[in-house]
Amino acid sequence: MSIQSPVEASDASLTPAMRQYAAAKRLHPDALLFFRMGDFYELFFEDATIASRELQIQLTSRDRERSVPMCGVPYHAAEGYLARLLRKGYRIAICEQMEDPKLTKKIVRREVTRVLTPGTAIDSGLSAEQNNFLASLYLDEGVAAIALLDLSTGEFRTTEFTGAAAIEQAVDELTKTKPAELLYEAAHPLFNDAASAESLKALAGIRTKTAIDAYAFTAEYAIPLLERQLGTHSLDGFGLTGHGAAAIAAGAVLHYVRNTQQSELGHIDSIRFYERSECLQLDQVTVRNLELVDTLFSDGSAQATLFHALDCCCTPMGKRLLRSSLLRPLADRGEILRRYDAVESLCAELIIREKLRSALDGILDLERLLGRISLETAKPRDLLALAVSLRKLPTLRGALEGLTADLWRSNLDRLDALEDVQSRVESTIVAEPPVTLADGGVIQHGVHAELDELRAISHSGRESIAAIEQRERTRTGIQSLKVRFNSVFGYYIEITKSQLGNVPDDYQRKQTLVNAERFTTPELKDFESRILTAHERCIEIEKQLAEELRQFVLAAGGRIRKSGAAIAEIDLLTNFAHLAALRNYTRPSIEDRCVLEVIGGRHPVVECMMEDAGEGRFVANDLYLDASRDAGGPAILLVTGPNMGGKSTYLRQAALLVILAQLGCFVPARSLRFGIVDRIYTRIGASDNLARGRSTFMVEMTETATILNTATERSLILLDEMGRGTATFDGLSLAWAALEHLHAKIGARTLFATHYHELTLLADQLPRLKNVRVGVKETPQGIVFLHAIEAGPASKSYGIEVARLAGLPASVLQRARMVLKQHERSERHNVAVETEAPLQMTMFTPLSQTIVDRLESTDIDTLTPLQALNLLEQLKAEIRGLRDGKGSG
Ligand SMILES: Nc1ncnc2c1ncn2[C@@H]1O[C@H](COP(=O)(O)OP(=O)(O)OP(=O)(O)O)[C@@H](O)[C@H]1O
Fold it and tell me: What residue stretches are annotated with the DNA mismatch repair proteins mutS family domain (predicted)?
């Protein structure tokens, strides 16, 4: 028999509960419906199949005959299950019982009270290190705006982009931030436009995308909504003057949150408009390539990220700030210097540093606790956790008082110890509260007189029972008489069958069992109603007191958030000082010139990993680049050397050192001198982008195009093995031309690693390009990688040697050596022939092979004399072209 979903079935054929289910499901067809039935949330039909698969819970059936698939989770344990479904990208509608089943004779009323979506998750299972952003993308002619809200912490920001690349930049910013959910207006022409389709493709990486109504993305609707939420008449105070698109994007986010949460959003009382140029710009490709927060390969361990190497933060707020700062390092010299001053002063103060770290340790996530309290999902234990964390703030303030640097002072000013909130919570809630308010016993004795009295009645009830039991035994002479309670029959007197003859007349029969009878008396009934009423009233008063406490805490929400932000920054700076002291990091110095000078630099992640694995010491290296217009120093370093020699490590290390320095952190180097970098570009290896429908080479060229078109002299560019994704000579030519362009037109600090040794000849022509190589030592046992950077080009590539180390079969290696010798011989021959020719000829000499190929493929027997002459003419023209340096290949 086919199972008809209640949504399609006629209402008449359904049970009343299923009718309610169908009505709720109709309103939320795209969500898994968690339907509250007593102590369980039940799921039915398709929802049940999905939930049982995703949560690995038993699938049963509600109605054997119609076999309606069903599964359920206990309501008190639902949070974990909900969180798992949200992480998998599902939307969930929670349908609650709106009445107490005990108080109604009819079926209880049920309503969907909350819709949970990946972007609006606030559960305690969220990663403490990471924001959970709900994002929106608003497009209009020539402008693209995005807004990001972390509902769990209240962090809310927005930005907009204009110009031809607006959509691309907005998409890049979005993908970099990795929102849990993206809101957009599906019907908007720009979302369906062929021209923008390519730019929007990258959004494929965001798993949950939700289309919302067009009106939510209009200025008339979204802006007043935002103003109301923020409690202002104008958005100017939030930096939104003249940024209407950003305000609309933010309003649309609010619209969605209000519709799904149906609770106050008191903790969202501020928004920040930011510009990308405020910080060191790192596009999504660079964030990925440099493994700042995620590893490049899905099987890679998290230890390989810069975040992991740097994170010794003590609080979740500090960890989140570190992580988000890594994606947006500073670009303002003054701000960076203030951080250096703070780090330096604490670095020298071991005792204060340890005091700070121990005060920070154990401070829970104030931002998220506040979020839960505001959204009414906080449990009594959350409130207590807040208070316990606040208890540490006076110590934290005390430790800060010994520090004089600017940032420490300003954070001390921002850090409200919130003693009033802490003492009110601690004097209201018991030390070990039960899980929910409904269990009772959450509020302390002495808070509310009536509550204390009622509790005394409940308590004395137990003593009264014993007294009644004793008195009735004496009165009736039945020694086995018992006074008992159960939830169905309430209080009763139980008398065994053998003693029934002695039951007094005023006993009223209640229930008959096999061996006994149960009775009640007017006195017992009265007693029962007093006790039960007292209990219910207790819960009612406790709920009211808890709500008052909640309102009190929310009224201090702004102060709590401010303290939370101060704690995050204190934790971040303390972490930097800790790293500096622990790992011997040094204070960089900032210059106006576009210089990057590293002496004795180490790779912060590789160094840590080598230490952890006990794999010896990282070899420190120097680097010198000066891209200032008047500089004689090199702007471009061309790095050659064998595979495994350490070229990529050297390149990445340069970028990571700059990122650390612009975070305000000290760096793993004997010294670092640098001019502020506006943007880091990377073109590293082959990023697998087949999912986005582009070949490896296409991706490489697109990324290179972005660099060549948008880099400035203040940028830092890393190009690792550019051109290797295509035929050797195409790749070589492209790399050659790109280097010339970088040298002549951009002049940015550039590191270019390559296996094309031909490129090293460029150093003779381009005065600001310098060759360096990674050193190797040849020993009778094979090559040894020195990992040290030396001046000059590499003379050999050692590819076959590295292949030997990798364990290629000996026969293959032997054959490869023979082939290599032949090639080298013919190369030498060519070079000998061409020694008098211009430089380019040496590079393109092997292109003469194309002429040989054409001759070989020509069938002379079928050629007419005229065709033969034409062929000769074409070949000569080709050779002339090569000599003029244009090249045909
Ligand atoms: N300075 C260093 N000190 C110690 N070990 C290093 C150093 N630089 C690199 N290594 C180690 O050498 C290995 C190879 O480094 P890397 O990947 O940078 O080489 P590569 O020259 O880019 O190789 P390929 O050309 O094959 O990509 C890495 O495992 C790294 O840990």
Answer: 715-731
Q: State the DSSP H helix or E strand holding residue 78, giving kind and residue range, or none if neither.
A: helix 78-87
Comparing CA positions, the residue from 304, 300, 302, 307 lying closest to residue 327 is 307
What is the predicted pLDDT for the residue at 325?
A: 94
Atom of ligand 1 nearest to the CA of 610: 31
Ligand 1 atom closest to Cα of 616?
4
Tens of pLDDT, residue by residue over 642-675, are 888 899 999 999 999 999 999 999 999 999 999 9
Residue nearest to atom 9 of ligand 1 (CA): 646
Domains of the chain: residue spans and CATH = 11-116 (3.40.1170.10), 134-274 (3.30.420.110), 311-418+556-583 (1.10.1420.10), 449-536 (1.10.1420.10), 589-808 (3.40.50.300), 821-883 (no CATH)
668 three-state secondary structure: coil
Sign of the Cα pseudo-torsion (573, 575, 576, 582, in order): positive
The question of ipTM being above 0.90 is answered as: yes
Contact present, 716 and 681 (Cβ < 8 Å):
yes
Q: How far is the CA of 787 from the centre of ligand 1 (A)?
A: 7
266 alpha carbon – ligand 1 mean position (Å): 51
CA distance 61 to 77: 21
Cα→Cα distances 570→155, 330, 368, 369, Å: 18, 17, 18, 19
Spacing, Cα 645 to ligand 1 middle (Å):
5
Q: Cα–Cα distance between 315 and 355 in angstroms, integer?
A: 14
Contact present, 681 and 286 (Cβ < 8 Å)? yes
φ, ψ for residue 458 (rounded to 5)? -60, -45
For ligand 1, atom 29, the nearest C-alpha belongs to: 644
In the structure, which protein residues have their CB atom closer than 6 angstroms to any atom of ligand 1? Answer: 606, 618-619, 621, 641, 643-649, 774, 787
**609 CA: nearest ligand 1 atom:** 31
Pocket test for ligand 1, best of 623, 648, 802 (most atoms within 8 A of CB): 648
With a CB cutoff of 8 Å and minimum separation 6, the contacts of 53 are none
The CA distances from residue 79 to 46, 84, 94, 119, 123, in Å, are 21, 9, 11, 16, 7
Per-residue pLDDT, 318: 96
Beta bridge mates, 595: 626
